[in-house]
Amino acid sequence: MIAADPILLNDWHAVAKVEDCPPGKILTTRLLGEDLVLWRPLDPQAPVQAWQDRCPHRGAPLSLGKVCDRTLACVYHGWEYDPTGKCVLIPPHPALEPPAGAQIKTYHCRERYGAVWVCLGTPSADVPPFPEWDEPNCLQILSEPIHGNASGFRLVEIGIDFTHFRYLHNQTECNPQVHEDFQVEMTTDGITVCERHFPDADSQGKRVTYTSTSSMKIPHPLRLYSYIEITQGPYKGRFAFLTAITPVEEEKSVQWSFTATNMDKAMLPQWLVFNQQVQQEDVWMAERLQPKRMPLIPPTDNKWPADLHVPSDRSSVTYRKWLKQIGVTYGVC
Ligand code: FES
Ligand SMILES: [Fe+2]
């Protein structure tokens, strides 16, 4: 039994790049504390499978096995399982009907935006929508996922924290003055942060100079959509980002970033390096915050002194209150 909130259990989480799951390949991953094996039969048309990484015979990790055409064979005694997770062959007894329990726990699995998405519970909706991904003439970018020893909520919070740019990303970005004009709204559909206008930024010798406007939405506890229009500088263009944080465990996460943009393709290699560096700095910071779990408002326990909030923290304050309201208990305190 996985001890996570239904809102996380019944949601889709990115767990691998599709390109890393060719026919015949076996991968392991971990989601909400559950070890998973991902594999694709040798048929290139066959979908990726996501299963509990445990053979019910003696408990061997199935990820140590091998793909035999359209079955996955366990490394220990060679029991073979078809794509529905049903045992179809017990080699020492080829004529024996496998026992009723010879069935692997399988999970919902989809391939979208270049990633493999898994739901451990009953999906409450489809894979997160990202319509901008399919707009004509846009660049579709799936960044390298970033692993961090941090609560996923810490990573989302950094994404909506507007006053850290100039400091945490000091070497990476030239960013705006601390600004006070953004509005935060909590509705039944989540949180919206809008009309964040950057004043003209001065370059100060940094690599990025721009003015822009943006808006953000958090429709789900571990998902952030950001829309930015950059009106000058090397990365001029419209950007839509889907940031999906995968909860590996309560204090371990993976940050997945999907970008759709009409920026100049020639600038892409440079932008990829820049974007990856900014994200790595965010994850680096999240890993070092104490407590490791996200303190809610009001807190769930009082082991740590309460964080201090000032007006420019209002997006993260709203996020913490919202997580409390919707009853999140996993990875928070
Ligand atoms: S443990 Fe898998 S076949 Fe025996
Ligand atoms: Fe950041």
UniProtKB/TrEMBL annotation:
InterPro entries linked: Cholesterol_7-desaturase, Rieske_2Fe-2S, Rieske_2Fe-2S_sf, VanA_C_cat
Kindly give the Pfam families that the UniProt entry links to this protein.
Rieske, VanA_C
One Gene Ontology term of the molecular function aspect:
2 iron, 2 sulfur cluster binding
Q: Which residues form the Rieske domain?
A: 13-118
What keywords is this UniProt entry annotated with?
2Fe-2S, Dioxygenase, Iron, Iron-sulfur, Metal-binding, Oxidoreductase
Q: Which PROSITE patterns match?
A: RIESKE
The UniProt entry, under Gene3D superfamilies, shows:
Naphthalene 1,2-dioxygenase Alpha Subunit, Chain A, domain 1, Rieske [2Fe-2S] iron-sulphur domain
Q: Does the keyword Iron apply?
A: yes
Q: This protein is called what?
A: Aromatic ring-hydroxylating dioxygenase subunit alpha
